[in-house]
Amino acid sequence: MENPFKFGTIVDGKYFTDRTKELQYVQQILQSENHLVLISPRRFGKSSLVNKALEQTERKHIVINMQSVTSVQNFASRLMSALFRLYPVEKMKHLMTHFRVVPTISTNPMNGSVDVAFNPTMNTDVILEDAMELLQKVSTEKNRLIVVLDEFQEIEGIKNFDKQLRAIMQTQKHINYVFLGSQESMMESIFEKKKSPFYHFGQLMRLAKIPYEDFKLYISERLNPELAEDILAFTNCHPYYTQQIASQVWDLVNYEHETIDIIPKAIERLVTLHDLDFERLWLNFNKSDRRVLQELSQSNGTTPFADKTIPTSTTFSVLKKLMKQGYVIKTDQYEIEDPFFKRWVAEKG
Ligand SMILES: Nc1ncnc2c1ncn2[C@@H]1O[C@H](COP(=O)(O)OP(=O)(O)OP(=O)(O)O)[C@@H](O)[C@H]1O
Ligand SMILES: [Mg+2]
Q: For 230-249, how does the pLDDT look when each residue is reduced to its tens digit (9 = 90+)?
């Protein structure tokens, strides 16, 4: 028997649940001349959602993770390698006749992938323009290419890259760009701040957690409704952590034949597994961080700080910082992102 839960990578097929409305919305944008900006905290399911939408469209697409892009040249190289995967070498060579700077192109004999390298001393504007022009050349009105840029907020790490890229993108036609990002405040400032080059460049969409009833059904079919409720009470419907603990619970039931206290046992295992990381993390927080985290670890679904009239300005600034770092997320309330860390902090208190 195979564990029916999956966490950590893109999920698809039987591991993918709900997101019907979201998928429809993504499709709608991909069928228009518009671009999509998809924001959510880490591991809410952005990549899985977009992957599913791409599968459904059956259109040609490339995905670049901006986290691994080190320079403008490197971005251009990745873009081109991705295109070489989609189109025959001969066609690509033919399309590259306009190139002002000819890159070195080599085929990796192990996997057949094509590596493209630019001379790093060359003018980056020229390299980027030529590479981006290729996207335009392979796209047609009927068959628009989809370009997904994951962890797009990382663009801020390369000086002037946002301006350069936007200047080119705004002149392009028949390409759909999808920008994904998990650093919410950075993504907001890229796409919502008037002064930013990407101000209102695409349709903004925020991905929420998976709705309770749907997730409950998904888990119930693989375990049972009672366990499903207890799991969701612990994870508060966070997609990744829900799948993670459900997977552990499934193992306990099916391999270890546990029948009582299954959820507490699963939680304990996973908290223990991460104990060292949590300890290290905790040591790096200052006093006010710890106070806020401790307070959040005690809250159960209700707004924390409710017992005090209003959170103080220090609490707010701590929350803001912790959110930026990803330890705290704001849904309808502030919550510690990782329910296992939340439990660890609560036990410490
Ligand atoms: N539609 C879904 N149905 C069930 N589980 C899901 C769904 N979407 C996401 N998950 C769970 O969340 C995990 C993370 O999903 P995914 O990698 O798509 O998120 P992400 O937002 O792209 O994450 P990251 O911020 O790390 O890029 C998956 O491995 C899976 O366990
Ligand atoms: Mg992702």
A: 999 999 999 999 999 999 99
Class of domain 19-206: alpha beta
Residue spans of alpha helices (H) in the chain: 20-30, 46-57, 72-86, 89-95, 124-138, 161-169, 184-192, 212-222, 225-235, 239-254, 262-273, 275-283, 287-298, 313-325, 339-348
pLDDT tens figures, 133-161? 999 999 999 999 999 999 999 999 999 99
Q: Which pair of structure tokens corresponds to residue 291?
A: 């106070």
Helix axes of 339-348 and 287-298: crossing angle, nearest 10 degrees: 100
Q: Is 243 in the pocket of ligand 1 (CB under 6 A)?
A: yes
> Which ligand sits closest to the CA of 46?
1
For residue 104, report the distance from its CA to the centre of ligand 2, in Å. Answer: 30
> How many whole angstroms from 216 Cα to the centroid of ligand 2?
23
Residue spans of the domains in the chain: they are: 19-206, 212-348
